[in-house]
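Q&A log
Question type: sequence-to-structure
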Amino acid sequence: MDWNSRRLNALIENALLEDKATRDATTLATIDPRLRASAIVIAKQDCVLAGLPCITRTLQVFEQLDPTVIGHFEVVSHPEIFDGVHLKARQVVAVIRASARVILSCERVILNLLQRLSGVATTTRLYVEAVDGTGVKILDTRKTIPGWRTLDKYAVRCGGGENHRNDLSDGILIKNNHISLGGGVKAVLAKAFAAHKSSQPIEIEVRSPAELEEALSAGAQALLVDNMTPEQVKASVQKVREFEQTLKSPRHIPVEASGGMNLENVRKFAETGVDYISVGALTHSVKAIDMSMRITPAIT
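Response status: OK
Response body:
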């Protein structure tokens, strides 16, 4: 994760501008610009931490937006606190020492970033633990908050999951609408192979045994079985494994399951023999982790 990337800087800058952080009416009216403060960021519930470097980046971006800031800042964390670590409720995430005005004006943006990303990481860890021992890898999707994808996918990795496509240019994944508009399974696969220029496998979504057989016969390199029951997924995987043995040069055809995944059923899907399970809930409906910031005057 490049914490100095232009995209991340722009995201944080937009968040500060949205909050009009440099025009914080309450803070500007009540807090002496020379006052230094110390802030403790606390996790108020058990979680997997993600986004710790966002604290420093937010303060840096704020200083770029407001050249009148007095004094430098410092962000300190215990060596055992890092992205991907499991935190207990009431555990300290970091200590910030800076201008009291800067801390107050950046407080909400910092907490929003940490709470969202830690929520994604924590949810991902639950799914990873649910399929432990099966060999299945948990993948994210592109169902992310617009503009937040890089951060959301980073948080998934912090939780032990893996990233699927980052964007539409990142490999060929033929979905049902492509099949409908492109003339059917065989037709779209033929077109995809003709246009394919990378080493990444061409993956195609199938929703029935008939589509599965058609995709295999047309040379599909990876399969996404969508919105099937665990029993249907298991039968599909068996069909794929049997097909592999008929090839002159046997090869492994990865199978990914998606659609309707939750913590109650993901284990059943993992035990069907699939290689991957993609879970939109990792990012599209995650619950933020409760965190707070306690700010006190700095000890001089």
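Response note: The first strand starts at residue 36 and ends at 43.
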